[in-house]
């Protein structure tokens, strides 16, 4: 469960139903710590990223008056729901043909770094998605970030400890895909991409593609 007060609004609270919940930096949904003073507590309470047994749900809240009001009725929700049998958790389709020619889709964390300095406390981490993994090819053959980062787009930003959330999400999604007999080649893979240039584009896999545990066995983040 995220640090208070994210996802704790009495109007939208579903934490008891969520299997995994992402943590946000204290300045979320703003993109940098210097804007944290503009975020009212009510906006934080309505902001959440939850994983359920069949879908993930994200609420990005707009507060037009910023910190001038702390009333939830003055804010606008922008809710996105992603079911696990559709992109980005599964390969997209061309009519009825799965587009697996360039590999499976990728859901990955991206943490900003300056050389070896972790900049996440200042800018937060992102969860990004790419439609395919380009079979693991690197930008400079044997080094550099994976080629798929060039066609990736951000899904959620200003996060804290995204790898911990993605590890749980990987288990939940794998369990769902096995239950519904979704071909393994169409399943998204989960990875963590380093922003440290000294790592030469270091990448690590999150969880196991063929793993997975029953949702009841996955400990909810508290």
SSE inventory with pairings:
Layout: E1 20-21, E2 23-24, H1 41-46, E3 48-51, E4 55-62, E5 76-83, E6 93-94, E7 97-98, E8 106-111, E9 113-114, E10 117-118, H2 120-123, E11 125-130, E12 138-140, E13 143-146, E14 153-160, H3 162-179, E15 189-194, E16 203-205
Parallel strand pairs: 8-15
Antiparallel strand pairs: 1-3, 2-14, 3-4, 4-5, 6-7, 8-11, 9-10, 11-14, 12-13, 15-16
Extract low-pLDDT stretches.
209-222
Beta-strand content estimate? 25-35%
Shape: globular
Q: State the helix count.
A: 3
The count of strands amounts to 16
* Helix-strand pattern: EEHEEEEEEEEHEEEEHEE
Strand order of the largest sheet: 2-14-11-8-15-16
Helical residue percent band: 10-25%
As a whole number of angstroms, the C-alpha radius of gyration is: 18 Å
- Average pLDDT number: 85
**End-to-end span in angstroms?**
4 Å
Number of domains: 1
Biggest sheet layout: 6 strands, mixed
What structural category characterises the helix and strand content? alpha+beta
Overall description:
It contains three helices and 16 strands. It has helices at residues 41-46, 120-123, 162-179, and strands spanning 20-21, 23-24, 48-51, 55-62, 76-83, 93-94, 97-98, 106-111, 113-114, 117-118, 125-130, 138-140, 143-146, 153-160, 189-194, 203-205. The protein has a six-stranded mixed beta sheet with strand order 2-14-11-8-15-16. The longest helix is centred in the last third of the chain and has 18 residues, at 162-179.
């Amino acid at each position: 469960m995220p640090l208070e007060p994210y996802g704790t609004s009495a109007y939208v609270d579903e934490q008891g139903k969520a299997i995994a919940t992402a943590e946000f930096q204290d300045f979320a949904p703003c993109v940098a710590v210097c804007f944290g003073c503009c975020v009212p507590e009510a906006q934080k309470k309505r902001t959440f990223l939850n994983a359920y047994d069949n879908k993930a749900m994200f609420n990005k809240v707009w507060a037009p008056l910023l910190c001038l009001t702390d009333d939830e009725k003055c804010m606008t929700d922008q809710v996105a729901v992603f079911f696990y049998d559709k992109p980005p958790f599964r390969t997209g389709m061309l009519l009825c043909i799965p587009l697996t020619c360039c590999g499976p889709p990728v859901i990955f964390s991206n943490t900003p770094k300056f050389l070896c300095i972790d900049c996440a406390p200042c800018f937060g981490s992102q969860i990004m998605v790419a439609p395919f993994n380009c079979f693991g090819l690197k930008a400079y053959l044997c080094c550099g970030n994976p080629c798929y980062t060039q066609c990736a787009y951000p899904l959620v930003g200003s996060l804290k400890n995204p790898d911990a959330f993605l590890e749980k999400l990987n288990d939940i999604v794998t369990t769902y895909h096995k239950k519904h007999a979704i071909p393994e080649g169409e399943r998204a893979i989960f990875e963590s991409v380093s922003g440290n240039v000294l790592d030469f584009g270091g990448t690590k896999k999150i969880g196991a593609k063929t793993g997975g545990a029953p949702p009841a066995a996955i400990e909810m983040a508290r």
